Amino acid sequence: MDWATVASNLVHDTIVFSTALIFAALGGLYSERSGVVNIALEGMMIIGAFTGAVITNVIQDSGSIAPWIGFIAAAIAGAIFALPHAVASITFKADQVVSGVALNFLAAGLAVYLTKIIYNGAGQTTTLTEVFDKWEIPGLAEIPYLGHALFEAYPTSFLAFIIVFLTWFLLFKTSFGLRLRAVGEHPRAADTVGINVKRMRYIAVMISGALAAMGGATITLTTTSNFSHNTISGQGFIALAALIFGKWHPAGAMGAALFFGIAQAIKALVQVYGLTQYVPTEFIFMLPYVLTILVMAGFVGRSSAPAALGKPYETGSR
Amino acid sequence: GSKTEAPQGQTGNAGGTEGAAPAAAARVGMVTDVGGVNDNSFNQSAWEGLQKLRTDLNLPEGNVNFLQSTSDADYVPNLTQFVKDGWDLTWGIGFLMGDHLKKVADENPNSKLAIIDAEVDAPNVESVLFKEHEGSFLAGVVAAKMSKTKKVGFVGGVEIPVIKRFELGFEAGVKAADPSVEVIKIYTGFFDKPDEGKSAASQIYGQGADIIFHAAGGTGDGVFNEGKNRKSKGEDVWVIGVDKDQSLTFGDDITLTSMVKRVDEAVHRVSKDVIDGKFEGGKIVWLGLAEDGVGLADTSSKNVPEDVLKLVDEYKEKIVKGEIKVPAE
Amino acid sequence: MNKAIAIFTKESFLVPVIAIILGLLVGAIAMLAGGFNPILAYTALVEKVFGSAYNFGETIRQITPLIFTGLAVAFAFRTGLFNIGAEGQFIVGMVAATTVGVAFELPAIIHAPLAILAGAIAGGLWGSVAGYLKAKRGVNEVITSIMMNWIALYLANWVMNSFFVPKGQQRSEMVHDSAIITITWLSQMFDNARLHWGTLIAVLAAIFFYVIMWKTRTGYELRAVGLNPHASEYAGMNVNRNVIKAMFISGLFAGIGGAAEILGVFHYQAILTAQPGYGFDGIAVALIGGNTPIGVILGAILFGILSFGAAGIKFTAGVPVELIRVVIASVIFFVAAHGIVKVFVKPILKKKEGGN
Amino acid sequence: MRGITKRFPGIVANDNISFSVKKGEIHALLGENGAGKSTLMNVLFGLYQPEEGEILINEKPVKITSPNVANELGIGMVHQHFMLVETFTVTENIVLGNEPKSGLQIDIKKAVKAVEELSNQYGLKVDPNAKIEQISVGMQQRVEILKTLYRGADILIFDEPTAVLTPQEINELIEIMQSLVKEGKTIILITHKLKEIMAVCDSVTIIRRGKVIDSLKVKDTNPDDLAAKMVGREVNFSVDKQEAQPKGPILQVENVVTRGNRGVNALNGISFEVRSGEILGIAGVDGNGQSELIEVLTGLRKADSGRVLLNGKDITNHTPRDISESGLSHIPEDRHKRGLVLDFTMSENMVLETYFHPTFNKNGFLDYAAIDKHAAKLIEEFDVRTPSIHTPARALSGGNQQKAIIAREVDKNPDLLIAAQPTRGLDVGAIEFIHRRLVDQRDKGKAVLMLSLELDEIINVSDRIAVIYEGKIVGIVDAKSTTEQELGLMMSGGNRKQGGGTDE
Ligand SMILES: Nc1ncnc2c1ncn2[C@@H]1O[C@H](COP(=O)(O)OP(=O)(O)OP(=O)(O)O)[C@@H](O)[C@H]1O
Ligand SMILES: Nc1ncnc2c1ncn2[C@@H]1O[C@H](COP(=O)(O)OP(=O)(O)OP(=O)(O)O)[C@@H](O)[C@H]1O
Ligand SMILES: [Mg+2]
Ligand SMILES: [Mg+2]
Question: Global pTM?
Answer without folding.
Answer: 0.87
